[in-house]
C-alpha cells in the first residue's frame, strides 16, 4: 500500500473522532459564553438593585461651609482610619443599630479631638480612610446567614446612608474632606473567585454614597480599581512631597503575623509596589512612608526596616466576633484610629486610639 493510501486510511478512521472533538469544543465554548452572560446579567442586576434601593434616600441638601481658620500658624490634617464595621453582624454585644451608634461616635470624637488641636494650630482638612468590611454580608461562610440581623441589600443601604451622614458631618466641621475607599473581603459577592473582584458590596456602597455627594465642592471622593489605595496629603508649601501612605484592607496578606505584615510593607516600600500614572503614561513607584491595615480587629503598630515608616493596624467597630476571639485571639473593645499629619514634614505628628463605648 502506498503512503497516500495509508494517509487516506488514517484520515477516514480519524474523521469521526475529530468531528466529536470539534462538537465538544463548540459545546464548551457555548457553555463558557452562557456562564459569562449569566455573570454579566447578575452583575447588572446587582448594580440596578443597589441603584433602586438608594433612590429612597431622596435629594441631599448641600452642607454649609464652616468658618474658615485664617491663622498663619502651620496647619495639620486629621486622618481617620475607619474600618471593619461589619454592619449587619449580630452577636451578644453587637447589631446594626449598635454599629451605627459606634461609627458616628468615632466621627464625633474625631471632631472633639480636632477642636482641642485647633486651640494651638489650624486643622482645616480631614482624610477619611475607609478600610473595607463595612458590610457583613451573608455568604462569606456557610453559617453566616444565622449570624446577621439583616439581608445584604439592607446592609448596603444602611452602609451607604451612614457614609453619607458621617461625610456630611465632617464637611460641616472641616473646610476640606477627602474620602479614600478600600474594599474588604466581606464585601465579596458570590463565592471566592466566582465573580470579578470589582463586584463588591463595599465598592457599591462607596460608589453610591460618592454619587449622592457629587455636588459637594469641598469633597474629594477617591476610588481606585487597585487593591491597594494611595493616600497623599500634599505639602502646602510646595517644597516637599507631603505625606504619603498606603491603605490596604489586610486580606491581601494571607498570614497576618506581625513579621509577615512588616515584611510585605518593607518589600512594597523598597519598590515592589508599582502603579500606572495615567498622566505621565509611565509606571513608577509610590514612595510611601506608612502603611494602614485593618481586617485583623487589632490595634497595633510596628516600625519598618528603614527606621522611619510604620505599619499602623486599626481595630474594628464590631465586638463579640467569635472568629476573631478563637482564631486571632482578638476580641477587645471596639476602637478606630485617628492621626494628625504634618504634611510639610511628611509624617504623623499625633496618634490616638478612639475607644468606642
List keywords for this structure.
single chain, 357 residues, alpha/beta, Purple Acid Phosphatase, chain A, domain 2, 2 domains, six-stranded mixed beta sheet, five-stranded mixed beta sheet, 6 helices, 13 strands, 36% helix, globular
Provide a concise account of the structure shown:
With 357 residues, the chain is of the alpha/beta class. Helices cover 36% and strands 20% of the residues. α1 packs across α3.
Q: Could you characterize what this model shows?
A:
This protein is of the alpha/beta class and 357 residues long. The protein has two domains: 1-58; 76-355, Metallo-dependent phosphatases (Purple Acid Phosphatase, chain A, domain 2), CATH 3.60.21.10. The chain is built from six helices and 13 strands. The chain has helices at residues 3-54, 96-118, 152-171, 201-212, 258-272, 322-327, and strands at 77-82, 125-130, 176-181, 219-223, 229-233, 243-247, 274-277, 282-285, 290-293, 300-303, 310-313, 335-342, 347-355. A six-stranded mixed sheet has the order 4-3-2-1-12-13. A five-stranded mixed sheet has the order 5-6-9-11-10, covered by helices on one side. A two-stranded antiparallel sheet has the order 7-8. A hairpin with a 4-residue loop joins strand 12 and strand 13. Helix 1 crosses helix 3 and helix 3 packs across helix 4 (201-212).
Amino acid at each position: 500500500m502506498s503512503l497516500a493510501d495509508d494517509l487516506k486510511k488514517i484520515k477516514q478512521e480519524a474523521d469521526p473522532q475529530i468531528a466529536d472533538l470539534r462538537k465538544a469544543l463548540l459545546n464548551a465554548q457555548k457553555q463558557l459564553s452562557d456562564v459569562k452572560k449569566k455573570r454579566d446579567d447578575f452583575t447588572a442586576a446587582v448594580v440596578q438593585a443597589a441603584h433602586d434601593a438608594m433612590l429612597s434616600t431622596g435629594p441631599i441638601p448641600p452642607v454649609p461651609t464652616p468658618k474658615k481658620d485664617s491663622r498663619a500658624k502651620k496647619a495639620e490634617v486629621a486622618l481617620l482610619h475607619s474600618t471593619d464595621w461589619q454592619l449587619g453582624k449580630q452577636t451578644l454585644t453587637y447589631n446594626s443599630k449598635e454599629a451605627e451608634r459606634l461609627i458616628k461616635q468615632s466621627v464625633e470624637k474625631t471632631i472633639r479631638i480636632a477642636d482641642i488641636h485647633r486651640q494651638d494650630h489650624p486643622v482645616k482638612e480631614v482624610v477619611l480612610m475607609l478600610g473595607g468590611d463595612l458590610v457583613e454580608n451573608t455568604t462569606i461562610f456557610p453559617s453566616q446567614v444565622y449570624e446577621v440581623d439583616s439581608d445584604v441589600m439592607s446592609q448596603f443601604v444602611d452602609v451607604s446612608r451612614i457614609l453619607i451622614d458621617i461625610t456630611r458631618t465632617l464637611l460641616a466641621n472641616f473646610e476640606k474632606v477627602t474620602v479614600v475607599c478600600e474594599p474588604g473581603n466581606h464585601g465579596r459577592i458570590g463565592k471566592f473567585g466566582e465573580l470579578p473582584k470589582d463586584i463588591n458590596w463595599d465598592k457599591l456602597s462607596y460608589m453610591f454614597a460618592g454619587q449622592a455627594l457629587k455636588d459637594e465642592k469641598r469633597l474629594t471622593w477617591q476610588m481606585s480599581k487597585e487593591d491597594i489605595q494611595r493616600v497623599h496629603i500634599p505639602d502646602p508649601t510646595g517644597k516637599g512631597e507631603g505625606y504619603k501612605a498606603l491603605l490596604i484592607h489586610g486580606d491581601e496578606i494571607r498570614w497576618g503575623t506581625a513579621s509577615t505584615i512588616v515584611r510585605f510593607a518593607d518589600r512594597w516600600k523598597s519598590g515592589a509596589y508599582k502603579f500606572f500614572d495615567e498622566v505621565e503614561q509611565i509606571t513608577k513607584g509610590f514612595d510611601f512612608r506608612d502603611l494602614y491595615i485593618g481586617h485583623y480587629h487589632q490595634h497595633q503598630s510596628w516600625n519598618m526596616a528603614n527606621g522611619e515608616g510604620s505599619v499602623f493596624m486599626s481595630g474594628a467597630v464590631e465586638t463579640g466576633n467569635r472568629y476573631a476571639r478563637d482564631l486571632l485571639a482578638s476580641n477587645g473593645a471596639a476602637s478606630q484610629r485617628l492621626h494628625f499629619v504634618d504634611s510639610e514634614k511628611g509624617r504623623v505628628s499625633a496618634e490616638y486610639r478612639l475607644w468606642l463605648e
